[in-house]
Design a protein that fits this description.
It is a single chain. This protein has about 375 residues and is an alpha+beta fold. About 35% of the residues lie in helices and about 20% in strands.
């Protein structure tokens, strides 16, 4: 059973001109793109090895022989005009890039991705060229999604919703955390997902007190809460959803925590709209949990951006400085975690629209088996 909705096209070819305009506004003549998600965003290339040199008049794409045909096919399909060069060794890569960079005075590097060792290597490769910290210009472009990108995240969310709905009854049938995680991954892939967005978090009972718990061979028991955090990838774009399932009748204390987090998540989601500070969304969620007396048990920020990577701009946290824009895709995922008792997290992925926010994850939240 494959879920294969019609997806709006993405304007990949229009991204390089936007990047050049951004670089020009910052008086940066060229950028060496080494982060693979950024290479994919700009070219459509999906392989595991590539470097992209962007100058005002040229785009040089360098990969190795494994991707000779694939790179040509994918760049052509995306409508991206670039010189493709095949470098069999680091020495040949140096020769190709060195020749292209030779006429430049300054070259920007992705300073949040390039290691100190790589910076020293590039200094040797490009003598006489000033290497500048370029910041995150490609990530800035990636932040606001076009209709095609939103469609791919929406499709990934739909697959996750559908797979979870099918498997949900198993949580009341003595399945282990690990068994459920494996079954969930298989079900998402059977519906057309490329892979997981991240390893699923399935945490029952006291394990739920660990926000990033690793699934174990512990069976899910009656009267327990189960934190289920998972997602998948469609054409490179991620989904992310968390639901906390109540298996049978839980204690009054557990139900109180669940209801507080549910109200917190609703408050955060209601706060998401264009022009609102990301920190304000965090405050809206956090205030509900603080007022209920569980503030110290809310151990992480309220959310994050989602796209080609499972965590990307903008952050939704108490120290975030961004303001939400139409086209941002973010999560809202408050939680409360009590050692020895368990935890509750509820998360939606939403896209900011002209009129507010559209939820892309549709699974009901008050799940009792």
């Amino acid at each position: 059973m494959t879920i294969a909705p019609a997806l709006a096209p993405m304007d990949v070819a229009g991204r390089l001109p936007r990047l050049r305009a951004l670089l020009e506004s910052r008086d940066l003549p060229a950028l060496l793109v080494t982060r693979l998600p950024n290479v994919r965003y700009l070219t459509g290339f999906t392989g595991s090895a590539a470097v992209l040199l962007v100058t005002p008049d040229d785009t040089l794409f360098v990969t190795d022989g494994r991707y000779r045909d694939r790179s040509a096919d994918e760049l052509a399909a995306a409508g991206v005009a670039a010189r493709i060069e095949i470098a069999a060794t680091p020495a040949s890569q140096q020769e190709i890039l060195g020749a292209a960079v030779g006429g430049l005075v300054r070259l920007g590097l992705e300073d949040q991705a390039v290691t100190w060792a790589q910076q020293r290597q590039f200094a040797e490769w490009f003598p006489g060229v000033d290497l500048d910290a370029a910041g995150t210009p490609v990530e800035e472009l990636r932040r606001v999604k076009d209709a095609g990108e939103v469609d791919r995240v929406r499709a990934a969310c739909a697959i996750a919703d559908d797979a979870f709905a099918e498997l949900l009854p198993r949580l009341a049938q003595g399945v282990t955390e690990r068994e459920f995680a494996v079954a969930l991954e298989f079900a998402m892939r059977a519906r057309g997902a490329e892979r997981n967005s991240f390893d699923p978090i399935i945490a029952a009972g006291p394990n739920g007190a660990k926000p990033h718990a690793v699934p174990t061979d512990r069976p899910v028991g009656a009267g327990e809460m189960v934190v289920c955090d998972f997602g998948c990838v469609v054409e490179g774009y991620c989904s992310d959803m968390t639901r906390t399932v109540l298996v049978g009748t839980v204690s009054d204390a557990a139900r109180e925590i669940f209801d507080v987090v549910l109200a917190s998540q609703r408050a955060g989601r209601d706060a998401v709209r264009a022009g609102v500070e990301c920190a304000e969304v965090d405050r809206a969620s956090r205030a509900v949990i603080d007022d209920a007396g569980f503030g110290d048990a809310f151990l992480h920020s309220t959310g994050h951006g989602v796209g080609l990577e499972i965590h990307e701009a903008p952050r939704v946290s108490s120290v975030a400085r961004d303001t939400l824009l139409v086209g941002d895709i973010v999560t809202v995922e408050p939680g409360v975690y009590l050692t020895g008792v368990g935890g509750v997290r509820i998360e939606d992925t939403v896209v900011v629209t002209e009129s507010g926010a559209e939820p892309l994850t549709r699974t009901p939240k008050d799940l009792v088996l």
